[in-house]
Design brief:
single chain; about 220 residues; alpha+beta; eight-stranded mixed beta sheet; 8 helices; 10 strands
């Protein structure tokens, strides 16, 4: 390779290498929760399990999320496993943030504000600085912008704090409400994989839709207002 070719090759490389700001412990969000117009976003806790069960058990929620129908005790055990995921460090690590509606009393825990949904952040690839988001919202609170408010704040956290290069979402293609939310967040529909996953409960194949957004795209959208 000539000197000119080497220089050209070097100049074509990205100006910065992808690097997630890991490890990240959710204790930082416990100390300073994310506050939006109507919501407080903080790590899930054991005390949230009854609120979570209130939406986790509903057929209209389970339709698009790969969860089995659980009893209250089983739901509590599941929530405790998610509560125990506190550190983002390696591929596959995940943490879960509660959407707490300020001023809405919890039906199962008097004196506490209600958890109406939750948002997952998963490390999809440390090497490529890629995160995945997932979310669920109690149907009683749908159609009021809460999912967009919460996921938008967590998306910003993924880019600003965790320094993601790219954030993705994977959803059942028939889940049009989540598809619209992805588009509202500025995510691009990148592919639909036909019969990509098998639903053993329903005995049928599911088409899966994939959405993504880059840090520079997210920054440009914020600047544009």
């Amino acid at each position: 390779m000539t000197d000119d070719a080497a220089a050209s090759s070097t100049s074509a490389l990205p100006s910065e290498r992808p690097a997630l700001a890991l490890p990240f412990d959710v204790e930082a969000i416990e100390r300073r929760p994310i506050v939006t117009e109507r919501l407080l976003i903080r790590p899930l806790t054991a005390d949230d399990s009854d609120d979570v069960w209130q939406y986790q058990r509903l057929p209209e929620v389970l339709r698009y999320i790969p969860w089995p129908e659980r009893s209250r005790d089983e739901a509590h055990e599941h929530t405790m496993r998610r509560v125990g995921s506190r550190l983002l460090a390696e591929d596959g690590d995940n943490v879960h943030f509660a959407m707490v509606l300020t001023g809405e009393p919890s039906p199962g825990a008097p004196g506490r504000d209600r958890v109406i949904g939750d948002v997952m952040v998963r490390v999809a690839s440390v090497e490529h600085a890629r995160l995945e988001l997932g979310w669920v919202l109690h149907p009683e609170f749908q159609g009021r912008g809460f999912a967009a408010e919460a996921t938008g704040a967590v998306l910003a956290f993924g880019f600003d704090t965790l320094q993601a290069h790219r954030v993705i979402a994977e959803l059942v293609a028939a889940n049009t409400a989540s598809a619209k939310l992805c588009e509202r967040l500025g995510m691009r529909h990148e592919a639909t994989f036909v019969e990509h996953e098998y639903d053993r409960d329903e005995g049928s194949w599911l088409d899966m839709a994939f959405y993504g957004i880059l840090r520079r795209e997210h920054a440009a959208a914020r600047l544009a207002g």
